[in-house]
Amino acid sequence: MTMHRTVQVNVDAMLEDLRTLVEVESPSRDLDALAVSAKAVAAVIEGRLGGRASVVESAAGPHVHWSGGGEPRVLFLGHHDTVFPLGTLERRPFRVEDGHATGPGVFDMLGGLVQAVHGLAALEDRSGVEILVTADEEVGSHGSRALIEERALACGAVLVFEGAADGGALKTGRKGCGTFEVRITGRASHAGLEPEAGINALVEAAHQVLDIAALARPEVGTTVTPTVASAGTLDNVVPAEAVVVVDVRVESAAEKERVEAAFAGLTPHLPGAVVTVRGGVGRPPMPESASDGLFALARRLLPGIEGRAVGGGSDGNFTAALGVPTLDGLGAVGGGAHADHEYLVVSSMAERAALVAGLVEAIRDGS
Ligand SMILES: [Zn+2]
Q1: Is 31:88 a contact under the CB 8 Å cutoff?
Q2: Do 215 and 241 sit in the same domain of this protein?
Q3: Residue 139 falls inside a structural domain
Q4: pLDDT computed for residue 4 by the predictor
């Protein structure tokens, strides 16, 4: 692929910033680590773009916000938390080898942040651009959603710097996703002496798991997957409690409602058992219509780049659900998100940064 227009970016400088960010470990929910990480992100932004990056405190850790001034036209959206616990860096230090950069968070999504900042730095005029880097994307964005939505509505267009889909494709649609926790309460009794006096929460859970799995409708993109279960205490006690955790993905608002209603309507099979449900589809689906316009711009800049609808959710789901044009997967080209084999393809960094610069100009031109 070749860009219609090239901008000057320095890959060595990008790798230097990537190293800085990777070497500050930033697991979600670790407020001390996230505070250090937010400062590092702010320093990289200020160092390359000038101005002031403000650190916005939240219960989930500090977010970083920067504005290029002028009327806001486009929001760069990313996160600085990672799924990797402290100590991962020691096992898997930042490295550049055989054309791949590796280390915790290179692909999801520190590489994307670096490309975004350097792409924008290549433009003399940075007005109209805001950058928001949140602290809790990997754990549901409860401490950042309101701010994300506010800035997305103010800007009117959102570029999300999550890692690219396979082969560098942009993410043009995302399923809505959520987690349900189904808790079954029965009654304990001696499994040998009087099992009939108990209400077996584990047997009830087995019925519920089958009912829940039957809610899936893969033909319309809905998956309902029981993922974690626990029950019981001792081998001679009828279990009084069981818990089933379920991962849900949907492609449409109608399916979100259907599945949520079905969970609310789960009823016990055993007399006396009680079923309680918590959770919901927290991230609404990001329909492909939300990315149509921005994806067309990207294709003009980088003919041949593909777009793909994917199952995983991101903060782009929130902004797309508000009706704000949103394009995702603009970040690193690579793979292995959330895994030890996570990597970023160094040779793609300059092109992705140039794509960012081109998109900013195109959006500001209103073309
Ligand atoms: Zn991510």
Answers
A1: no
A2: yes
A3: yes
A4: 52
* CA dihedral (24, 27, 31, 35) positive or negative: positive
Rounded Cα distance between 98 and 105, Å, is 18
CA of 331 to the centre of ligand 1 (A): 10
- 350 C-alpha to center of ligand 1: Å? 20
Same domain, 99 and 167: yes
Cis peptide leading into residue 286 (ω within 30°): no
The CA 109 to ligand 1 mean position distance, Å, reads: 5
Reported as a single tens digit per residue, the pLDDT across 284-337 is 999 999 999 999 999 999 999 999 999 888 999 999 999 999 999 999 999 999
**Separation of CA 259 and ligand 1 centre (Å):** 25
pLDDT in tens, 37-94: 999 999 999 999 999 999 999 999 999 999 999 999 999 999 999 999 999 999 999 9
Which band of pLDDT confidence, cut at 50, 70 and 90, is reported for residue 5? low
Reported as a single tens digit per residue, the pLDDT across 95-104 is 999 999 999 9
Task: Give the three-state DSSP class for 107.
Answer: helix
Out of 283, 312, 327, pick the residue that ends a domain.
283
Q: How many CB atoms lie within 10 A of CB 24?
A: 18
> Which range of residues forms the domain containing residue 350?
11-175+286-365
Residue type (1 letter), 198: G
Backbone angles phi and psi of 130, in degrees to 5: -120, 145
Q: Residue 194 belongs to a domain with what CATH number?
A: 3.30.70.360
Chosen domain end from 249, 283, 317:
283
Same structural domain, 150 and 71:
yes
The answer to whether the predicted template modeling score (pTM) of the entire model surpasses 0.90 is no
Q: Is 1 part of a structural domain of the chain? A: no
Q: Name the CA dihedral angle for 120, 122, 124, 130, rounded to a multiple of 10 degrees.
A: 10
Are 235 and 122 within one domain?
no
Instruction: Please check whether residue 4 lies inside any domain of the structure.
Output: no
**Is 61 within 8 Å of 38 (Cβ atoms)?**
yes
How many whole angstroms from 344 Cα to the centroid of ligand 1?
A: 14
